[in-house]
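Tokens for chain A. Residues wanted.
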């Protein structure tokens, strides 16, 4: 009978232990009551198991927080009684008194009795427990005990205690949390997918680094984060590792940079008993209460804060994407929102981290992966729109001779198309976001989509006006820029004047609302200058330079206005402005262009040529750097076959003209065939990254040589430009100027006609074509051509003078006198012979 009774008790104990590990507390209580009935000598064990079962069953339903303290005090009285019975002498002999005290500490914590909880832990001698291998259930009890002890020490304060006592209590609290975090990780590793950390254990894991940070021990906090992240991952630690990785990344970004940062130590190489290196999946443990940590021979160790931050965020982003909930069912709404919040938090940190280093490709990749589970999420779509627009390559300011639209087919144009598409998808999700629409307008303007950009700018202006937002001035500016570009593009004088009027009103409103915006003053000065109001343009330019003394646009306009005859012969000031711009922007091209042209008039031809050569040298070095950069990235942008849409300083490209319809196909074919023949063997050079700016520099040198009377040198410069951009109207125009200077009027006429076949509104080509007709004796063609030039730009004095000479030769002195009077009214000091 005794043997049979022992076997029955042993079977009960086995079943009870299995139920405890599975957290089946209802069954544990039933088996414990049966054990108490069948085996009275195990009464203390039965009392402990019943008390444990009732306590854990309650805590599974009601978390131990302040809101549930009163409920715990009512419903845990029975569990308290059973656990108290297990702490008597019989319980000590049965070996359950220690565990009973630990569970009583947990019960008192749930009831809000923090001092009683600490007393129970003191009775259990928690601080002197020996580190040894523990069963899985005992391991959890000890881990929770250390965690709850730390929480009780944090909740209960010592009134009137000395600073030494407070420091000692804080160190004891941190020590308890550290032991709890290590035991929790070990418990989760040993428990596998069935184990889960309770609220106290999870709080202990995250509390230790925060306490170190509160005590200004940042390096200790970082070491604790690293220690927990280096632990071998378990199925139940994935969400926890995501939170720890994100918190460590935030700490490194905020407090540990530069010389304060210390890289993690390289883990020692693990060697097996036979003297060989362990495999990659091996791990190491420092003791029975220490979690297992990775110790692979190929383990990556960051060497700087940048590597560690990016590694943490990329790993965290991978975990967040892996845990994303793809189902759109209502039952998964809470889980989907939680997973999306985790992914968005990591993505935002990644943006803050890598945007300062220009590595937006990582942000775009992360946001692309987030698209599969962020349907309708305004924040993710807005971030993607901003990142896509910011990642679009833009030509550096130093390489810009004049503002030019992005070439279709280039990488910048393709990136702009993608940014615009993403923004159109994101804009309806954020109906009151004016800044996003302004960014979209800027992208459209850069790609030459004026109507789309103007629409977005007007939407942004309407949004800001409705709520009286802080971006009204900037919205007026971007809307005014849109009308300014629209006026330059249109071929109708009525539409041009209407767009100029709207542009001027919006720009004036912008500078009224924000009198410190140099960009608004720059565009206002540009609008005044395009309308011929040079004095107002000079005032706006001065305001631009007052708001930003180093504004390249302001210096540029000052140079142009001071060198204009209508503003007075202020060549010295114009030269000073060009030299100041050259000093402020040593790698920019436009100061050299302006300086060379001004030196030709106000200094000497040799100085002007020297500046032109310096410009060409700068372009050659910039091209070499651009080619090396393109080789590093594995691609090179393809130049367009024609640059007829580009602007230049000598043309009015967007003026109205009736020559578009009259430009026959035979002239286009002839111009293209001539350009193709001159570019034989040089097509690869024409695709150089800076072919167009270099060609413009050669054309500038050709113009300088023509003004100095060096016709042969000018012809050579034109030939060099033709090898770089064979299909450019400017090359054909300058070649015509070379023939005109040599008196070869027939060849000049053909060159000007070919230039107009590529660019029908190029004003200089039209004017000089009329001069060629006049010198060839084709007076009616000369009159027709010059009248078209007058329609394009009525404010150009030399066109009226040439037309007056043509009308005089035709025998119409009255009309000739009228046109000459118009020329004198526009420019009374000029004398430009035909």
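Reply:
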């Amino acid at each position: 009978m005794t043997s049979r009774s022992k076997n029955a008790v042993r079977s009960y104990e086995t079943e009870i232990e299995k139920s405890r590990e599975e957290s089946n507390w209802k069954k544990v209580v039933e088996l414990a009551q049966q054990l108490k009935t069948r085996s009275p000598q195990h009464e203390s064990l039965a009392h402990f198991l019943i008390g444990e079962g009732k306590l854990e069953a309650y805590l599974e339903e009601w978390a131990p927080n302040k809101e549930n303290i009163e409920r715990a005090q009512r419903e845990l009285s029975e569990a308290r009684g059973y656990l108290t019975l297990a702490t008597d002498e019989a319980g000590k002999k049965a070996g359950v008194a220690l565990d009973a005290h630990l569970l009583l500490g947990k019960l008192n914590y749930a009831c809000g009795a923090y001092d009683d909880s600490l007393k129970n832990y003191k009775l259990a001698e928690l601080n002197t427990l020996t580190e040894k291998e523990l069963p899985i259930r005992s391991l959890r009890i000890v881990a929770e005990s250390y965690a709850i002890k730390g929480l009780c020490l944090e909740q209960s304060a010592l009134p009137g205690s000395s600073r030494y006592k407070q420091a000692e209590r804080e160190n004891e609290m941190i020590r308890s949390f550290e032991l709890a975090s290590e035991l929790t990780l070990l418990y989760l590793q040993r428990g596998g997918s069935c184990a889960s950390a309770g609220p106290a254990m999870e709080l202990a894991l995250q509390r230790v680094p925060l306490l170190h940070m509160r005590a200004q021990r940042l390096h200790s906090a970082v070491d604790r984060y690293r220690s927990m992240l280096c632990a071998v991952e378990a199925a139940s630690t994935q969400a926890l590792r995501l939170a720890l990785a994100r918190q460590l990344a935030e700490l490194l970004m905020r407090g540990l940079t530069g010389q304060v940062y210390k890289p993690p130590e390289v883990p020692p190489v693990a060697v097996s008993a036979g003297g060989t290196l362990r495999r990659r999946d091996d791990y190491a443990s420092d003791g029975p209460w220490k979690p297992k940590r990775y110790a692979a021979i190929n383990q990556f160790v960051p060497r700087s804060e940048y590597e560690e931050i990016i590694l943490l965020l990329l790993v965290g982003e991978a975990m967040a994407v892996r845990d994303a909930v793809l189902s759109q069912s209502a039952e998964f709404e809470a889980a989907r929102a939680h997973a999306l919040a985790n992914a968005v938090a990591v993505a935002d940190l990644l943006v803050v981290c890598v945007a300062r280093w220009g590595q937006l490709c990582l942000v775009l990749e992360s946001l692309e992966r987030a698209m599969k589970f962020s349907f309708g999420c305004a924040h993710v779509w807005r971030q993607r729109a901003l990142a896509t627009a910011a990642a679009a390559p833009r030509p550096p300011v130093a390489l810009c001779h004049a503002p030019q639209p992005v070439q279709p087919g280039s990488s910048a144009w393709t990136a702009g198309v993608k940014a615009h598409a993403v923004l159109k998808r994101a804009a309806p999700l954020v109906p009151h976001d004016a800044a996003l629409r302004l960014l979209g307008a800027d992208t459209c303007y850069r790609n030459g989509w004026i109507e789309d950009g103007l629409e977005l700018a007007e939407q942004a202006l309407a949004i800001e006006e409705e709520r009286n937002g802080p971006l009204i001035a900037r919205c007026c500016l971007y809307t005014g820029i849109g009308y300014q570009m629209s006026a330059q593009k249109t071929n109708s004088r009525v539409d041009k004047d209407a767009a100029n009027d709207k542009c001027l009103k919006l720009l004036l409103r912008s500078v009224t609302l924000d009198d410190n915006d140099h960009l608004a003053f720059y565009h206002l000065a540009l609008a005044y200058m395009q309308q011929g109001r040079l004095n107002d343009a000079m005032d706006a330019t001065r305001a631009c330079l007052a708001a930003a003394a180093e504004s390249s646009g302001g210096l540029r306009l000052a140079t142009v206005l001071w060198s204009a005859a209508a503003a007075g012969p202020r060549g010295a000031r114009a030269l000073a402005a060009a030299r100041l711009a050259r000093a402020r922007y040593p790698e920019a091209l436009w100061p050299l262009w302006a300086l060379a042209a001004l030196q030709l008039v106000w200094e000497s031809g040799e100085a002007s040529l020297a500046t032109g050569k310096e410009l060409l040298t700068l372009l050659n070095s910039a091209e070499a750097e651009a080619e090396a950069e393109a080789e590093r990235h594995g691609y090179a942008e393809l130049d367009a076959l024609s640059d007829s849409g580009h602007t230049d300083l000598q043309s009015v490209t967007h003026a109205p003209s009736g020559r578009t319809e009259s430009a026959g196909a035979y002239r286009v074919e002839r111009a293209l065939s001539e350009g193709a023949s001159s570019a034989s063997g040089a097509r690869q050079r024409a695709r150089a990254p800076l072919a167009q700016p270099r060609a413009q520099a050669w054309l500038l040198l050709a113009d300088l040589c023509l003004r100095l009377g060096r016709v042969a040198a000018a012809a050579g410069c034109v030939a060099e430009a033709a090898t770089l951009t064979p299909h450019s109207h400017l090359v054909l125009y300058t070649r015509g100027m070379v023939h005109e200077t040599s008196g070869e009027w027939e060849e000049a006429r053909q060159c000007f006609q070919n230039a107009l076949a590529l660019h029908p509104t190029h004003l200089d080509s039209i004017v000089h074509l009329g001069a060629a007709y006049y010198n060839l004796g084709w007076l009616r063609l000369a009159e027709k051509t010059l009248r078209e030039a007058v329609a394009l730009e009525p404010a150009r004095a030399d066109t009226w003078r040439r037309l007056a000479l043509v009308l005089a030769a035709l025998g119409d002195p009255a009309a000739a006198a009228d046109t000459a009077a118009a020329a004198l009214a526009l420019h009374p000091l000029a004398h430009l012979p035909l």
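Strands lie at 283-284, 293-294. The chain has a mean pLDDT of 78.
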